[in-house]
Every structure is written in structure tokens, then in C-alpha cells.
Amino acid sequence: MAKQKKFILQENEIPTQWYNIQADMKNKPLPPLNPATKEPLKAEDLYPIFAQECCSQELDQEHQWIDIPEPVLDKYKYYRATPLVRAYELEKALDTPAHIYFKNESVNPLGSHKVNSALPQCYYCKEEGVTNVTTETGAGQWGAALSYAAKVFGLEAAVYQVKLSLQQKPYRSMMMRTFGAAVVGSPSMSTRAGKNIITRDPNHPGSLGTAISEAIELATTTPNCKYTLGSVLNHVSLHQSIIGLEAEKQMEMAGEYPDTIIACFGGGSNFGGLAFPFMRHNLLDGKDTEFIAAEPASCPKLTRGEFRYDFGDEAGYTPLLPMYTLGHDFKPANIHAGGLRYHGAGTIVSQLIKDGMMHGVDIPQLESFDAGMLFARTEGIIPAPESCHAIAATIREAIRCKEAGEEKVILFNLSGHGLIDMTAYDSYINGDLHNYTLEDSVIQENLANVPEV
Ligand SMILES: *Cc1c(COP(=O)(O)O)cnc(C)c1O
């Protein structure tokens, strides 16, 4: 029989509900805290910042399934279902008995999984009478997804992009403007926070911290304007569960069930999106799939961070979140996988690590690009530098299978393509990239600045 390469769902087979793992967790995530009072937050406390529905979803530990609104499903159909693909050529190159599958989230107008959450976030804003959305973006994947989704649902988007990234990586800001968003380099003169920073340091290159401050200020001082976030938060992982729910059906078409599930890890949304629907069978049905989150060795919150209440942002504007963290003012090395340079993990994933349901692995930068190059040359897709970490972790497992003679089924998430990150590949090919080592003393210094609760 001819070997089947791709497993494709019809439009009417796209799941119509998201999966909320919080309902099935034995130990629920601890609540976020108000930093001033240290009291647990209620959904209403978040209303000034986010769409109300997102606030409810954030703290929902009750409903296992949440309906995907019809207009969001309609827009999902523009690019979903995404294919599940068997990586035969990669298997051959590794000479492994393992069966390697990947979920291809790079095939959509924006090139990464982030649009899966940008669409519902903009939809809920529209439904609630919001007219404007804002956010911050580093490399620009989230900003691009949000700009598209805002246009789809008739909202104005203002994206604060780290000034230096805007100058060095202009293509994603061009995408954002193509979709009609206003892109502002941060720090900017458009907010008080930005003006203060520029007054102190006229040549400030910007950081995610400056961009978050500006976006939150805009959202809280502009009528009918909400802030949105593309990772870390529980409602973002909820929306991303569409990835794993589709993959579950597609693995069934392939007649296999994954022994190991792998995704790269920045704030946890593409990992949770693929992993949680499968993890529900570990929680409820006695399956024992292994879950591996691949983080950069230079930003190792899962393996070397501490479980603490910490701020979600550098500047300390957000609620305190219970999570594995390297400290909110940790400054990760300037690796090319910009989407993985985040100091903390989401609260769900952090609880799952504490409970032994999953674990992290650290991938050095050069190993990630070695893996990305092999994947490009075998499977023909140039992966995002972030996704390269998942591929590297997959290759480690596949080699382990070869050594042990084990025919494991491995499923990983291809969270995005790298076609707008070609300068990173260029640097790698020219031999200009290197690994970063991170001393324990640096981690300890940053953790000392985490507030006590
Ligand atoms: C943003 C991004 C990530 C990291 O974010 P998560 O929330 O951890 O998924 C990974 N891959 C790509 C392609 C991204 O754009």
C-alpha cells in the first residue's frame, strides 16, 4: 500500500469546541494576585484590560468544553484544518525506527499558530462593543496575527513594536500595515510612559517592557480600547487547543497514537494547544503519553527557573502569576528565536510541571538551527527559529529510539515557518551564530527581585 504522507480533515470535521484542561486538572492552577493587595483576582478585575469573555475563560476551572463562536469558526475555515504530516524523509535521514508526525501550523496567511487566538480575541472585543485593540510585539508574529484578525472583525489595531526589532526586521511591520494596523516603534511619543522613557534616554532601543507599558496605557486611557496578548495566558492556550483536537482526529486517521508529544515553548500557547487535548487522556483515561516542552538553553525557565508568584512583564504592570520564572527582569540573550525569549511559563503549564505531567528540555541555539536545516532539506519546509527547538527535541528522541530499537510514535508542532526569518538562517550558514551559556548566579540575581507574597 502506498504510504500516506498527509492526513487532512474536511471543513465539517473541524472541532466546534475548544478544550479547557483546567476543568480536568487534579490540582488547579493557583489564582493570579493583585500586586498591591495580594488578594486573588476575579474576572471583573481584568475587565478594564481584556475582553470580558477572555477574562472569564482565563479563570474558568469548571467547563471542560467551550463553544467556538460561529463567526470564529467561519474564519478558522480560511486556513484550517491544518495538515498532519508524517515526516518520512526526516525519519530516513535519522535512520530511526520512530514514526515522526508533525502538525503543520505554518500554513496560514500569517505563518504561525498565533492567529488561532487573535481571531477569537478580536471577535469577543467586537461583540462587546470595543472599537480598538492594542498590543505589543517583539519580532512581530503576534502583531501580524492581531492586525489581520482586527481587520477581519472591523477593529482598529495599534501595535507597539520594540523599536530596534522594527528597524532590524521590517517585514512583519509591513505585513501589519498591509492589514491596516498602525505600527508604532516603542518607546514612542504617543504615550506618557513612552515620553518619559525618551526624555530620560532619547536613544532607547525599546524592549518588550517598554512596548507593554505603552500598549496597556493606551488600552486603559482610551475609551473602547482593549489590550490583547498572544501567549502565556490561559485563554490563549484554550483557543490554541484547536491544534491538538484536530491532531487527535488526524492521528486516528493514521491509525496511531502518540507516545511522545513535543512543542517549542515561549509562553506555552502552541505547546498547550497541541498537548492539552492529548493530556486529557493521561488525566482521564490512563494513557501515558510523554510531554516535552523545548525551550532555548539561554532562557530556561522550565528547567532552571523557580515556581514563584511573579509579574508577567518586565515593568511589573500585570497581576502576579504563579509560574516557573527566571524573574521578570531577566534579560535573555538576543537569540533568533524571538518568540521564546520570555521569562516565565503560563500558570497551567507551571502547575502541570509541578505535578509531573510534563517536562522541559533545553536546546542550545546551534542545535536548534542544525535541526531546522535538516528539516528544511528533508521535508522541504523552512521552519521558524522557534519551531526549530521542537524539531531538535524530536531529533533527540528519534535518535534515542534508534539506540534503544524502539518504534515510538512522536508528534511535534511546527508552530510556524521561517520565511521572514531568513537573516537568521543566513547568519547560521555564514557561521556567525553561537551558543550562550547562562550562569546560575545570573538566574539567582534575577530571582532575588521577584516579589515575596
Ligand atoms: C510566538 C511563537 C512561539 C512561542 O510562543 P508560545 O506561546 O510558546 O507558543 C513559537 N513559535 C512561533 C512560530 C511563534 O510565532
TrEMBL record:
Top-level taxon of the source organism: Bacteria
Gene Ontology CC: cytoplasm
Enzyme Commission no: 4.2.1.20
Coiled coil ranges: none
InterPro entries referenced in this protein's UniProt entry, alphabetically: Trp_synth_b-like (IPR006316), Trp_synth_b_CS (IPR006653), Trp_synth_beta/beta-like (IPR023026), TrpB-like_PALP (IPR001926), TrpB-like_PALP_sf (IPR036052)
Entry keyword annotation includes Amino-acid biosynthesis: yes
Segments forming domain Tryptophan synthase beta chain-like PALP: 79-416
Reported cofactor(s): pyridoxal 5'-phosphate
GO molecular function, one term: tryptophan synthase activity
Amino-acid biosynthesis is among the record's keywords: yes
Pathway annotation: Amino-acid biosynthesis; L-tryptophan biosynthesis; L-tryptophan from chorismate: step 5/5
Top-level class of the enzyme under EC nomenclature: lyase
Substrates-to-products reaction catalysed: (1S,2R)-1-C-(indol-3-yl)glycerol 3-phosphate + L-serine = D-glyceraldehyde 3-phosphate + L-tryptophan + H2O
Keywords: Amino-acid biosynthesis, Aromatic amino acid biosynthesis, Lyase, Pyridoxal phosphate, Tryptophan biosynthesis
Described purpose of this protein according to its UniProt entry: The beta subunit is responsible for the synthesis of L-tryptophan from indole and L-serine.
Family per record: Belongs to the TrpB family.
Subunit-level organization: Tetramer of two alpha and two beta chains.
Descriptive protein name: tryptophan synthase
Organism: Pseudoprevotella muciniphila
Phylogenetic classification of the source organism: Bacteria, Pseudomonadati, Bacteroidota, Bacteroidia, Bacteroidales
